[in-house]
Structures are given as C-alpha cells and as structure tokens.
Amino acid sequence: MRAWLLPGVALAFAAGLFASGTSIGGWVDPGLAFAVGAAACLGGALLDAHRHGPDPLVGTGLIEDPPPSVGAVSGGVRHRAPAAVAATVAGVLLLGLGWGGTHERRVDRSLLARLAPARVAVRGSLRVDPSSSPFGWSAVAIVDRVAWSEGEVALRAPVWLSGNGQVPAARRGDRISVDGTVVRPDEAGFGAILLHKGIAVELRVGTFTREGPSPNPLVRLSQSARNLAGRSIERVLPPREAGLLLGLLLGDDSKLDAGLERDFRASGLSHMLVVSGENVAMVLAPVLGAAALLRFSRTVRFLAGFGTVAFFTVLTGAEPSVLRASVMASLALVGVLLGRPRQTSSILAAAVLALLVLDPWLAWSIGFQLSAAATAGMVAAASPLSARFGRVLPESLALAAAATMAAQIGVTPLLLAYFNDVPLVTLPANVLAFPLASPSLLIGAAAASVGLISVPIGRFVGAIAIVPMRGLETIADRLAKAPFGHLTADGGPVVLLVGFLVMVGLLWWLRTGWRPPRAVVLAGVVGLPLFVWASALASGPPAGLTVRFLDVGQGDGALVTSPAGAAILIDGGPDEDRVATQLAALGVKRLDMVIESHPHADHIGGLSTVLSRTPVSVLLRPGCPDDSAAGDALARAVREERVPVIEPHAGDAFRVGDLSVAVLSPDRCWEGSESDVDNDSIVVLVSLHEDSILFTGDAQTSVQEWLLDEGLPWIDVLKVPHHGAGTSLSDFFDAVHAPVAVASVGLDNPYGHPVPETIAALESAGSAVWRTDLDGTVTVTLTGRGPTVESDR
To answer: What pLDDT sits at residue 134?
Structure first.
C-alpha cells in the first residue's frame, strides 16, 4: 500500500482540480476545502504515527521488546493503516478542490476580466505560434502590461488573441504589442474552454506589432534552432515526410499533410504525429550514452542530461506530454545523482503532482491527461502483459505488444469520454509501427543536422530516413480502412468514470493473476455467444429500407441501408469526426455510394474523415464551379483515397445493390439565383420497390419550381430542404405528400432553422415533422406498410 500512496495522492489531487471546474466547485468554498483537506491530511498522519508508534503491549511489560535485528526487518515492511491512507487521499482531494477553486476565482476576477468590454493596448509575449482559424487567426499571449483609457498597470495574465486577415509573422516567445477590444467570450462553451486554460478574456485584435525576439537567451537559442532545423528538414526531405518529421521532432504540425493526419488518427497512430514524452527519451538517451562513454562524473552527466531535457522542452514549446516526460526525466536524474533511484510509479506521480501544483490548468489538458494515463498504464501493466505474451511471442515482439496494450488500457477511458471512438486496429498498428518510429525520428534528425552543412549529403541521409517513414505511412493508410471494429461511446463523465473503474479492475487482475471461480467462467461461456449473436443482429442488414438522419449538429448527414446490405451516405455534417464515429458505432465497414449534395462545410466537413476510414465504391458530387475551402479539402481527400467520382445530372439513375437511386437535379449549374451553390445541390430519390426517400440537399425555391414543372411522385420520407429555412414552397410539400419529413438541424443554431412557416406548411401537407435538434438521430424504416419512426430522445 505504501508504494501506491504517492500515485493515489497525485490522482486525488488531479481529481480535486478537475472537480473544481465543474458544478461541484460552484458550491464548495475554496478556503473551506483547504481547511478540511489539511485537517484530513493531518489526521491521516496522526493515525499512521499512532499505528507505528511503540507497541502498547511492550509498554505494559506484557511482552518483551523484539531484538534489534527483528525490529529492523519488520520496519522494512511497513504498511500504512487503511484509515490513514483514506484520510490522506480524501484530504489531498479537498486540497486539490481548494487549489483549483482559488485559481479559477483569481482568473475570473482578474483585471482584464473586470475591464471587459473595453479598448486596451497590451504588451507581452506569445505563448504559442499564431495559427489560422475558420474566422481568421488566433494565438495565446502572456500579457505583462495593459493600458486603457483610465490608466496603465503591469500584470501577468494570459489572453486569447483573435484577429482577421493574414496570420502574423511571429512565433512563440516573441515580444509583441497589440491593441484591440478585450471581451468576455460570447459563447458559453468557448468561455469554459478558455477558463480551463487559465484564460478569462478574448482580445479582438485591431493592430498587431512584433517588437522583437524573446529577451530570454534560452528561448532565443531554441527559436534559432527551430528555424535552422525546420529549414533543413524542408530542404532534405519531400514535403509529406518533411511535415511528418517537423511534427515528430519539433512539435510543429503546420506542414502536416491533412490526409496523412487522418490516416494516423484512424489507425490509432496519431500520437506519433506530434512530439511526445517518448521523444524526450530518444533525445536524452544518446546524450547520457555519450557522457558515460567519455567517463564523465555523475555530476557532469546530471548537468548534461538536465540541460538537454530543459533545452528540448523549450525547443518543442513545452507541450504537456513533453513537460510530463521532462519532469520525470529530471526527477530520475536527481535520484541517480543522489544515489537513490526511485520506482517509475513514484517518479510519475511526483512529476504529475508537481506540475499540477505549479499549473493547475494542466488537469484540463487532454494531452497531459493522455500522456500521464498512457505512462501509468505502461507502469502498471507492461510487465505482467509482457510475461504473458512472452509465452507465445519472441521477446522483442512481446515487449512491444505489451507496452502498446498497456498504454492503450490507460488511455481508452479518456478517448471514449472525449472522442467517443477507439479503433480496435490500434494494437496491431502500434506493434507494426513500433520498430519504425525511432529510425524515422533519429535518421530524420541526422539528415536535418547533416543538411545544415551539406544539402546533397543531407538529402542522401534523408533518402534513408524516408524508408521507415514511408513504412509508417503505409501502415497508417492500410490499417485505417482495415475491417476491424471500433469501441464507441456517447462520451461524458459517466463514460470516463465507468471506463476508469473497468481499467482499475483489469489492471488489478493482470497484476494479481486472479482466476475467476468456475461459476463465473461457466456464465461467461454461456453468455458470450448470446452477446455476440445479439450484437450481430443489431449490426446486420435491416428488415426494410432504412434511413438514419444522423444528429450532426447544424448540417446534414444521412445513412441509407437495405435488406441486401447496400449502404449509401448522403452528406457528412460539419464536424470532422462525428459522422465517421457514428458510422463506426453502427458497424458500417464499407459504403457503396457517398453523395456530396453540395460543397458547403455543414454538409461535407466530415466526409474527408469518412473516406479515410471507410472503403467507398463511388462518390457523387455536383459538377459545378466551386472555390470553397471545404470543397478543396474534400477534393484532395478524394484524390488521396483514390475514390471514383461521378458528376451526375438530372435523369441519371444508378443501381446500388437492391436500391434504385434516381437523380432529379441539378439539370444545370445555376447562375444568378438566390444561392447558386445551394441550388446546385444533388437531389436524389432512393427507393426499394414501392418505398422511397427524397433527399433535397439545400435546394431552394428556384429548383423546387423546376421540379414541380417536371413532375414529382408521392414519397414516404422527405429530407426537408435547407434545414427547414424559409426557402421552400408549400406547393412542393403538397406535391411530394410525404407522411414523414425530417429536418436536419442544430440545437440553438443562429439561423432560426427550421422557421415556423416551413413547419406549418409541412404539417398542412400531412407530414409528421421530426427534427434532429430535438429528437437526436431519427431512424425511419420502410417495409411496404408505411414508415416506422424511432428517435434517440
């Protein structure tokens, strides 16, 4: 129990910090939490001291004091009282709650927060590089001086910078001066995200001026090193591999290929795309090895290792995973220097605890959580897993598989809670990629170093580095579409808690070797086939023509499936991953057809990820002019995934398994209409025998009038045009006479969709109206006897 006390304390402190940012922190006074927590910790210490004080029986003379040798041995196996441990852990949790609450109140009541909204001029330094955003550019700065109409003061506070136009030519660490309007975030969710970064306000930039480089010589040196290394990497490697190495070595994802990133995420290899704690070990190992070969003293080796870790941390921008690994490495070096090396579990716990005390906002950093959880998983489970795998696998492969699975056990609850999806291909992908990761990084770094002296020689070394890099790319690309299942969940704190309890139980089983009773084994043998059978039925072909109008927020996304197993996806919603995750949860392994109704982001934002994860037979898209960023991104994904493309016109028809797909529009590329891109939408009628579904994209009145002139059949299900906006004709609804109409719309959208007039017109036409904002995913099944509707809510 003593060995796990420090990890328990670190976990309790993190839980307290996390709780302070939830509704719990709203009704707990930080001062009271501090007082009660300190009292509980003191009580735990007193209980422990009492337990290990002089034996009361010895004090009364009832028994003799044991010999010193026996006392020495017994003292070496000291166990803390469970009550003492419980009191200490509970006290530390309350201390974390108080510490987090104190910092949150300080940020919420800061000067900049009190000034908002006001025009200000600030000076400070960039914490992160400015990057492009959907609305311009954004960055985080540390302000050390602020001036406003009534005064000027020195302070130290982080702010979120947002601006329009081109991304400023500046980098993290640079001194800057900015004037603009400081405001509290308009959107509550965005405000909560900023608060969990320790930021109270957004500064909407009017003018931005770079004053010069950082005054810190270490930061300036790291900036120069990043520039030199970055330029050399781009000279000696092709663009795709250069972007990969920039992420691996420097944590710079600005040049990372979008398709490569999707493949790595889909195969569970995304942790390799950015600098991580593993990179600290890769950089530190050769330095310590060289110091040992040169027979440097212990102190010199410590200074060399500590300096390397510090410089690498600054070089990579102190990413949370690098911070965690750097502090762990520093603590390990201190232990070696003092001749008292510690267990990895204690070093991890001490590093996490120290970082959370210094920067409590790290408790909300997903990167920090994943890094700590992966390391904890490896500490707890790698050895027992390796021993089990070693019975059937070679030692090196057993170690790689054990480390990968142990890390995956640690991070799975977090991945399900935050991202809702864990690909089961992760384990084989990481085992295959494991031997290629280090050569990619180290040989790539060597090529960049040599390239500083001689570009031709650097390119020669770079050609060698390309071999393992291409191997990583191939593994990611092939396994991204492998027919493995996905572990999916709805996310949220309940999933996190249940996942954590399951993880603890699994780790306990692995470390203790517990064997279940015969009754439990028998129940599992009997129950597992029933579970598999039920799951197979749930994910098998439907009884009739079925359409799921997916809840994708303010956008469109619908999946049509048939009894013969055909699968058609119409649009992919605005979110990059949401539709792909929903398809994985439904067990969709392939798509016979994907239809891009038109190239607006709320319809195609998630299709690139779908194409990278799911084999697609053909893509239908409008053949009309388009220069949107969303359309360009999807076009690149289509080329990279080599998906066949058809640009259909009105009158075209396709057979997809047992389904008929008739294209009703467009008959032309519209010009001068109320919205040409919307009117260019592909309108299709999907039918099976007498059952039919009409998908209208965002077609507006011009198209609807043309369709009325051409003649429309009665249908069973209508996808309401343009999210129910006031751009439809009541005559159109009367003509299709759909018993069921579904509006794909986002909750609290700023457009007011669907408008009351459209809902009234649909109901007047005899349609029962369902909405994804109110009903969630809407599933309609047609079996020849009329539609049956189910919803998530």
So the answer is: 65
Which whole number is the average pLDDT over 468-487? 88
515 in a structural domain: no
Q: Is 473 among the domain residues? A: no
What are the E-state strand segments in 647-755?
Answer: 653-656, 659-665, 683-688, 691-695, 717-719, 740-743
CB 291 within 8 A of CB 300: yes
Place of tokens 């290990």: 52
- The first and second tokens of residue 345, run together, are 């579990």
138 & 98 share domain: no
Coil, helix or strand at residue 749: coil
Q: Mark whether 85 and 131 lie in a shared domain.
A: no
Domains identified in the chain, total number = 3
The conformational region for residue 136 under phi > 0 = left, psi -120 to 50 = alpha, else beta, is left
| Domain identity same for 584 and 692 | yes
CA 468 – CA 268 distance, rounded (Å)? 18
Furthest CA-CA distance within the chain? 109
For residues 47 and 155, membership in a common domain is answered with: no
Residue 248 CB neighbour total at 10 angstroms: 25
Amino acid making up residue 556? D
DSSP per-residue codes, 504-563: HHHHHHHHHT----HHHHHHHHHHHHHHHHHHHHHHS--SSEEEEE---SSS--EEEE-T
Give helix 277-293 / helix 320-337 axis angle, nearest 10°.
Answer: 30
Asked if 566 and 611 sit in the same domain, the reply is yes
Give the helix/strand (H/E) hosting 763. Answer: helix 756-764
Cα(707)–Cα(651) distance, rounded to whole angstroms?
12
Task: Examine the fold and report which residue of 195, 215, 235 is the final residue of a domain before the chain moves on.
Answer: 215
Report pLDDT digits (tens) over 675-712.
889 999 999 999 998 999 999 999 999 999 999 999 99
Eight-class DSSP state of 168? P
Let me know whether 89 and 154 are in one domain. no
The Cα 309–Cα 325 span in angstroms is 9
- Segment 509-535 shows an average pLDDT of 70
- Encode pLDDT of 715-733 as tens digits: 999 999 999 999 999 999 9
Percent of the chain with pLDDT over 70: 92
Provide the pLDDT for residue 193: 86
pLDDT at 32 over 50: yes
Beta strand pairing call for 691-695 and 683-688 = antiparallel
Helices (H), 156-213: 188-195
Q: How do residues 778-792 score in pLDDT, each as one tens digit?
A: 999 998 888 999 988
Cβ proximity of 336 and 359 under 8 Å: no
Pairing of strands 683-688, 659-665: antiparallel
Sign of CA dihedral 129, 131, 137, 140: negative
Does any domain span residue 535? no
Q: What's 137's domain CATH number?
A: 2.40.50.140
Examine the domain organization and report whether 100 and 121 are in the same domain: no
Q: Which residue, chain included where needed, has tokens 């000696």?
A: 236
Cα–Cα distance for residue pair 116/683, rounded to 1 Å: 48
- Least confident span in 51-60, 254-263, 435-444, 519-528: 51-60
- pLDDT for 25: 67
- Angle 107-108-112 from CA coordinates, rounded to 5°: 75
Q: Could you identify the residue written with the tokens 């799921």? A: 548
In a 10 Å sphere around its CB, with 0-12 CB exposed, 13-18 middle and 19+ buried, how is residue 785 labelled? exposed
Amino acid at 193: I
Same domain? 145 vs 58:
no
3-state secondary structure of 215: coil
Mean per-residue pLDDT of the chain: 85
User: What span, in angstroms and rounded, lies between the C-alpha atoms of 554 and 725?
Assistant: 12
**Structural contact between residues 101 and 20, judged by C-beta atoms closer than 8 angstroms:** yes
Does the pLDDT of residue 77 top 70, yes or no? no
Boundary-marking domain end, from 181, 215, 249: 215
Which of 551, 548, 552, 549 shows the shortest CA–CA distance to 539?
548
Structural domain of 189: 111-215
